[in-house]
Amino acid sequence: MRAHLRTLLTSLVVGVVVAFALAWILAASMDVGSVVPQTVNYATGSEQVEISVWSKPGAAHVLYKSERGSNWSPSQAAGPPDTLVAGDAVTAWASATADGQQEWLTLEYERAVVAKRIDVYESYSPGALVRVTAFGEDGNEVDVWQGVDPTKANSGSGVSKIPVTAQFKIRKLKLYLDSLAVSGWNEVDAVGLIDADGQTQWAGDVQASSWYSSGSYSSVSSLSPAQAMSIVPDWAHLSQAQVKWKASQTAIDARGWPMLALYREENTPMTTVRPPYPAALPLRPIWRGLAVDAVFFGVLIWIIRLMAYWPNRFVRDVSRMRHGRCISCGYNLNYNFVEGCPECGWRRNAKG
Prior knowledge:
Elements: H1 2-29, E1 38-43, E2 47-56, E3 59-68, E4 103-113, E5 115-124, E6 129-135, E7 141-146, E8 158-163, E9 170-177, E10 187-195, E11 200-202, E12 205-208, H2 225-229, E13 247-255, E14 262-269, E15 284-285, H3 287-322, H4 348-351
Antiparallel strand pairs: 1-2, 2-3, 3-13, 4-9, 4-12, 5-8, 5-10, 6-7, 6-9, 10-11, 13-14, 14-15
């Protein structure tokens, strides 16, 4: 029994080696590019994303393409103003249509403060701002201003200084623009949140009712980011934190059989050609898949060795008997099988 247990443990170790070797062989020989990928798209105020997943037995490939801060997107209204000249500029937010509907912007800031003023930098076709609300720490939306935009519609550009008298801390704002009332794209470059000490914060995250560049993403679906990310296998551990460039792609490739056992990840700018196969061998373990593959191959090797044990033993015993040796240890008995083996005690122990 101990011998069989040792054989089983040895077989499991060999199973791990086989799982690694097979994953590397599949990485070097299998191209998943021939498979039609499953592809989804989604867009938020700060990011446009395309996710493609290629999958076949023994291999899977995930390609996550992300473009942040695209022209006229809501993220252009984040941070301090950077549109230096009045007019239509890609460095400011613009709605999808010039006068198609009422528009809004939500802006979140790093710190919650009791504000005394909100500065709205309108860089093109100003005058559409009609309402500003704030969200308290309880998440409720409260009106802090309604009226006529301080910046006139024919002024080209300007900074609308909105006084705030609310005494609760504000971290999130929402601007409402009557786009139908002011012709042209009512572009917003930045929104400053000024506290009682005169310190200005600039928005970190911005969302919008629509934006102009989203129209260039013709395949954008109605999926939420969570729904789109659901097609990504759990072993990929894909997150938006992996994005390193304004337009980047993250490729994750996994190999192994019967389950995916190893993977590798590569982050590159969008301009880099990213074919659906790895440029190098995968080294990171997918622990669950690696364990299953190791046990599968280890047990398989152990069963094969166990099945071969009795035929091999029969052949060995017949060979020893034909040469007059002890069947148990191979000691030369000169065909004196009756007295047993003086070396190992075969037959003698049985008599004793």
